[in-house]
Amino acid sequence: MLKAMNDQGKAVISFSQPREKLEQLRREHLYCPNCKQPVILKAGEVNIPHFAHRSDGQCRHGQGENDVHLKGKMHLAKWLFQQKHPIYLEYFVKSIQQRADIITKVGKFYYAIEYQCSPIEPQELLKRTEGFLSQQIIPIWIFGPSYEQPLKQEFYKVNTAIRTSLLASPYAKSLRFFTYNPSKFTLSIHHPSTVHQNLAFSSSTTKPITTFSFQDLLINESKENREKEQWLLQKRRFRTKQRQFTSDEEKEYLQFLYNNRLHPQYLPSCIYLPVQNYHLFHTPIYVWQTHFIMDVLDVKDVEGSFTWQDLYDGLSDFFYPRLTSAYPSSAIHPLYDYTLKLDQLGYIKCHEDGTFVKKKDVHYPKTLDEALRNDRELLDQLFNG
Fold it and tell me: Which residues form the Competence protein CoiA-like N-terminal domain (predicted)?
């Protein structure tokens, strides 16, 4: 931990002290802000100065913090202080029994900065987020170097915790998440445009943290919007990749196609389209969209109708289990957003009473070249429409 209390009940911050002051602190009585038990100052030549419980202590506050986490908290606190934002380091919110790495106030709003270096279960991340939000404190999750896992071709590895914490800011259009590397002093803002299970296409902005302002976390947009091209690349990969190692779900999907004498190469271009909030569901987007087209739309005649309830009842199994977004976001269901996309593309007509009317048949390409050409034409229509 970076903060302790002295005999007068005043907070003592370890990293902001000169060497002679640290030597003086070694001789003082210092206490954990959480359990009020004595703590000792650790201020060697390598690790940053911090306080620690004695080995026989039972308090969990500060336990398990490594040097990366301590440095990250210290850097983030200094970064906010240099922008003249108030900082409350390792602040305990009594009403919800939660401690934030940093609490700050920017404008009219309070923010909890959580620097997450170790693995965290999505349920715990969600619980902590909801706790802060219940007190009108907006949590900002910033992940440590262990979460920085870029892959080739602009892919970025995003585990379930990151997917849960994708920030949908009311001041910006794109989803984003953040990583900070204290050894390089670099902050990264990542903008995932397509998320498939634990992979995402992500354009990222990485710069020294001092070149960012706090507001950049909320309003920064990717300078280069390549979402359409990334979806085209993803669809090509979906159609052509060799599937040597597949999950049971993928095997079941491929068997379904095989039983219908189909292969991903020859699926209609209206399958595997981007829709809102699809990253919060475990079932791959192309699975339930394939079943929508083949089990619902293909069996209807042109001008045939179906209802939202019919549609949802038939496909609801593909939407469990569900991840819960840590932040308030659009409540639109990805299945319903898909109907809006199909309406935009002229396949169906959505009516206000919750019914849908089929307007044209779906085209199945005969060759891979035709499929890829159709993909581009359809995405051009979708993104430019």
Answer: 17-61
pTM (global) more than 0.85: no
Please give the helix or strand (H or E) that residue 379 lies within, else none.
helix 368-384
Give the count of beta carbons closer than 10 Å to the beta carbon of residue 109. 11
Report the C-alpha gap between 318 and 262 in whole angstroms: 20
Q: 123 and 104 in contact (C-beta within 8 Å)?
A: no
Beta bridge partners of 186: 181, 208
Whether residue 11 contacts residue 5, with contact meaning beta carbons closer than 8 Å, is answered with yes
Given a contact cutoff of 8 angstroms between Cβ atoms, the answer to whether 289 and 318 are in contact is no
Query: Token digits for 246?
Result: 């597949």
Alpha carbon distances (Å) from 233 to 164, 192, 228, 285, 315: 25, 14, 9, 15, 27
Q: Which of 327, 363, 367 is nearest to 168 (CA)?
A: 327
Q: Indicate the burial class of 271 (C-beta count within 10 angstroms; 0-12, 13-18, 19 or more).
A: buried
Q: Supply 360's token pair.
A: 């044209």
Nearest C-alpha neighbor of 381 from the set 254, 272, 260, 228: 228
One-letter amino acid at 171 equals: Y
Residue pLDDT, tens place only, 85-122: 999 988 989 999 999 999 999 999 999 999 999 888 88
State both tokens at 126. 């969600």
CA–CA distance, 234 with 194 (Å, rounded to integer): 8
- Rounded Cα–Cα distance for residues 106 and 80 (Å): 10
Q: Report strand pairing: 155-157 vs 199-208.
A: antiparallel
| pLDDT surpassing 70 at residue 248 | yes
d(CA 288, CA 357): 19
State the Cα–Cα distance between residues 37 and 89, nearest whole angstrom.
19
Indicate the pairing of strand 3-5 with strand 11-13: antiparallel
What are the structure tokens assigned to 77, written together? 């606190």
